[in-house]
Known about the structure:
Protein name: Response regulator
Keywords: Phosphoprotein
Domain Response regulatory: 3-119
InterPro entries: Bact_response_regulator, CheY-like_superfamily, Sig_transdc_resp-reg_receiver
Strand content: 15-25%
Amino acid sequence: MKKILIVDDEPNIVMALEYTFKKNNFEVFIARDGQEALDILEVQLPDVIILDVMMPMVDGFATLEQIKKDERLQHCKVIFLSAKNKEKDIEKGLSLGANLYVVKPFSIKKLIEQVQDLIQ
Length: 120
């Protein structure tokens, strides 16, 4: 079973993604901010991380910088899922090492397909 970590502070998005990924046979972990995500990553090694940019405590960009420093997480695919849709934000996310940058509002169906493609 593939593992996914969803990092977002919007409850509606978290619930929708958790439900959909569980239905698609993923083991799902939830973090409400970057620090909580980093704590989970101490004990879990997901295949995919879906990461919001704007969050309390530690934002998505800073979280990804920490993820990229951890040898154990080199295999993880990271997808930014953010309302920050300016070209400079997207470029920053990709230059930090994200595999994809998806802008909100988004299609859950399309996101599932993108995740499946990444982990093939």
